[in-house]
């Protein structure tokens, strides 16, 4: 249309020039003058060949004919395009139908390839174990070549399009994943090796306690793990690792924005007693002017890999308090490298490849201790100690002991273990705001508890925490950091313009937003009421989250309507609604309580972040390694300590 209008304007210009030459009166404007298309050439004297007699008019006549021809061609092209557009819907439907048929054919071929590969692998294993004595060397080479060709075909047989630079097509990723045996009898031979390796390397939990058998208080059990690493897209892994320092900065700025914290958390009303009490302690600390030498952030940002046309890492939550399993996660990676080198995963690996390079290095074993030590140095008292605040009857002791080990062996800093109640009973704050235990100054209180109401069964625990918060000792996390990790903050961050309030660079803010899924309030605002209707109408698309950490609190599927119809409007404010992230399942092998378990699983990737600042200068801002937790695909929650998952390591694809 723009081309046609341009031709019209060109022809009108020619007509004006002709009028100037022959003083031809300009045509009157009427209802047809604005119609699409050129006006006829003005009447002029012509020769016997039909062309104008005057030379300049001849020139303009030729230009007119050329412009008219171009107009006609453009008009015909436009009509053709309109015809194509009318047919496009039918063509699109036909293409979708063909694509669906191709996908079904691909699935059938992949199944046949997997079955044939399994048979061929058994044939090759039999040959290697000399059960087929008559096989010639050429046959041996042929079998190996056939296996390699099939594995390559499995990695490349996909009809998916080319992904962008930040992602991998879902079908391409699925085709490249290894195939693990699901025969528990065949895999039983690995159990003793795995359990003994765990015991030798501190990959352990305390056994559940018993009131009658006191020996169980010191008994140990192997931590639940996977026998082999689980596939994660390399592009997604690299993206979230590179993003972690930005998230550290984002949440530090949130913690320092008092007005934002107050306005956001006050919207919860009195719906959540625990969060309200932490918030009131924060306001009291601010009112009393408690001064801290620095802040130490030990964070973990958790993601699931969402399976759309492309795989994308989507944020589940951002943890600012008691982010656990950093130590054991690194040890599991070492275990998987050991198993690969010791056994080559024979009998487990049925198709595909696992290489050492695919299991990424993990500094989470040392990063937390080093981060605490950096804050300890800013405290400025080399003879002080660190207190690790733990839960009574803690079972995940060795994950914590590795942090103590790092602090002592690398930085020569002593660590004490106390509960909040024990802090109340054994500690005092002196006139210089120093937190003391038996005359010993405490520089850092690193919380491995305090994230749930169950950690504060009496006023003694609240009193113990307040002693830390009102003193000069550095709490990890600070009250402001604790509140910044609330689910309500996560939900409000997804609103337009909120991330940009804290991150000036538009491109960086956009990278953060790409990891978000839909997040909605469940309050009495119009947005909250709409979200409530969405959740009631299609509950299986969402998850409802309270202001809690630690696993076991979220609500899924058919339980969502039951919850939302049973709570009051005020209580509903304490929850948020989040789009359900759907990760691709994978057939894996777990070792739990000394037994092999085969299961269809999904994996949740966590990236640790270490941030230390004295308020003016950022001393440390880095990613601190990773955690992979793997759970059965039909289990909604993902906490290892809560009993829902096992510790894993990523296999980058």
How does this model look, in words?
- The chain is α+β, with helices and mostly antiparallel strands and 653 residues long.
- Helices cover 46% and strands 20% of the residues.
- It contains 21 helices and 24 strands.
- Strands 1, 5, 7, 8, 20, 21, 22 and 23 form an eight-stranded antiparallel sheet that branches. Strands 10, 11, 12, 13, 14 and 15 form a six-stranded mixed sheet that branches.
- Strand 13 and strand 14 (440-447) form a beta hairpin.
- Helix 1 runs antiparallel to helix 2 and helix 10 runs antiparallel to helix 11.
- It is globular.
A few lines on this structure:
Helix content is 46%, strand content 20%.
Strand content: 15-25%
Could you tell me the number of beta strands? 24
Distance between the ends: 48 Å
Rg over CA atoms, rounded to whole Å, is 34 Å
Range of helix content: 40-55%
What is the residue-mean pLDDT, rounded to a whole number?
85
Structure classification: alpha+beta
Low-confidence stretches: 23-36, 130-141, 151-165
Largest sheet: 8 strands, antiparallel
In DSSP terms (H or I, runs of 4 or more residues), the helix count works out at: 21
The 3D shape can be described as globular
């Amino acid at each position: 249309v723009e081309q046609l209008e341009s031709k019209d304007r060109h022809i009108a210009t020619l007509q004006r020039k002709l009028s100037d030459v022959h003083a031809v009166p300009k045509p009157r404007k009427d209802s047809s003058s604005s119609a699409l298309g050129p006006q006829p050439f003005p009447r002029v004297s012509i020769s016997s060949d039909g062309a104008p007699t005057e030379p300049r008019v001849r020139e303009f006549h030729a230009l007119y004919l050329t412009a008219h021809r171009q107009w006609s061609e453009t008009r015909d092209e436009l009509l053709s395009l309109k015809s194509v557009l009318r047919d496009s819907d039918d063509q699109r439907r036909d293409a979708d139908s063909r694509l669906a048929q191709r996908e079904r054919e691909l699935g059938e071929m992949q199944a046949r390839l997997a079955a044939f590969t399994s048979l061929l692998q058994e044939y090759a294993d039999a040959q290697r174990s000399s059960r087929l004595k008559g096989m010639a060397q050429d046959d041996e080479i042929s079998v190996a070549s056939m296996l390699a060709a099939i594995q390559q075909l499995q990695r490349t047989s996909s009809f998916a399009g080319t992904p962008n630079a930040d992602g991998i097509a879902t079908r391409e990723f699925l085709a490249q994943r290894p195939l693990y045996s699901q025969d528990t009898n065949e895999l039983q031979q690995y159990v003793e090796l795995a359990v003994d390796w765990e015991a030798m390397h501190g990959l352990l939990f305390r056994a559940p306690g018993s009131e009658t058998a006191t020996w169980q208080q010191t008994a140990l059990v192997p931590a639940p793990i996977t026998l082999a690493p689980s596939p994660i897209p390399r592009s997604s892994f690299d993206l979230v690792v590179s993003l972690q320092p930005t998230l550290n900065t984002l949440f530090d700025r949130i913690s320092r924005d008092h007005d934002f914290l107050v306005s956001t958390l006050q919207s919860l009303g009195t719906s959540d007693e625990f969060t309200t009490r932490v918030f009131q302690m924060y306001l009291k600390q601010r009112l009393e002017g408690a001064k801290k030498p620095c802040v130490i952030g030990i964070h973990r940002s958790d993601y699931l890999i969402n399976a759309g046309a492309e795989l994308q890492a989507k944020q589940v939550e951002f943890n600012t308090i008691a982010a656990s399993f950093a130590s054991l996660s690194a040890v599991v990676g070492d275990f998987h490298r050991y198993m690969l080198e010791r056994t080559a995963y024979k009998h487990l690996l049925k198709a595909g490849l696992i290489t050492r390079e695919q299991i990424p290095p993990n500094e989470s074993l040392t990063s937390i201790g080093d981060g605490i030590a950096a804050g300890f140095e800013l405290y400025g008292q080399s003879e002080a100690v660190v207190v690790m605040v733990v839960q009574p009857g803690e079972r995940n002791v060795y994950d914590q002991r590795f942090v103590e080990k790092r602090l002592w062996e690398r930085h020569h800093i002593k660590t004490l273990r106390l509960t909040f109640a024990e802090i109340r009973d054994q500690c005092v704050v002196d006139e210089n705001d120093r937190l003391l235990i038996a005359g010993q100054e405490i520089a850092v209180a690193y919380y491995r508890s305090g994230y749930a109401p169950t950690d504060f069964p009496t006023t003694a625990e609240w009193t113990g925490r307040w002693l830390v918060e009102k003193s000069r000792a550095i709490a990890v996390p600070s009250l402001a950091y604790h509140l910044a990790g609330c689910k309500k903050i996560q939900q409000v961050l997804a609103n337009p313009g909120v991330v940009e309030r804290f991150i000036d660079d538009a491109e960086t803010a956009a990278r953060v937003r790409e990891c978000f899924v839909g997040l909605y309030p469940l309050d009495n605002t119009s947005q909250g009421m709409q979200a409530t209707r969405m959740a009631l109408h299609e509950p299986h698309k969402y998850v409802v989250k309270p202001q809690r950490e630690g696993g076991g609190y979220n609500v899924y599927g058919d339980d969502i309507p039951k919850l939302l119809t049973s709570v009051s409007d005020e209580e509903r404010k304490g929850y948020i609604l989040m789009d359900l992230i759907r990760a691709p399942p994978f057939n894996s092998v777990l070792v739990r309580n000394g037994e092999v378990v085969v299961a269809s699983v999904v994996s949740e990737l966590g990236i640790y972040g270490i941030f230390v600042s004295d308020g003016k200068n950022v001393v440390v801002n880095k990613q601190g390694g990773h955690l992979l937790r793997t759970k059965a695909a039909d289990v909604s929650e993902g906490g290892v300590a809560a009993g829902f998952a096992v510790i894993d390591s990523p296999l980058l694809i």
